[in-house]
Amino acid sequence: MSYVEGFVLPISKDNKQAYIDHALYCADVFKEYGMTAMVECWGDDVPDGKINSMRTAVLLEEGETVVFSWMTWPDKATRDAGWEKIMADPRMAPGAVEIPFDGKRMIFGGFVPIVEI
After folding, report:
1. Model pTM greater than 0.70?
2. Domain of 32?
3. CATH code at 8?
């Protein structure tokens, strides 16, 4: 089974194209280091929750939406080695590419699939 890395983040609705451009730029780099797939999803039906929700988890502000994203890697070892190389790649250095979202409010994690159909 593959290894999955997931993200939930807030982004200004005005920055949709900037986010798409950013994702495409990053995908090219990530693929070089072993990522097999990336899916970026723009929030369309993200309701408020009674206790918690994606909106509250990312501290969503007026004029923003939630992006739900995931990447797949062949396995955790490839992902770990890939991220080490990504972080050392000058194309990903601070300031090399504009980040069109508030990374401090991004939620992310790595996951081992338990059902894959």
Report:
1. yes
2. 3-111
3. 3.30.70.100
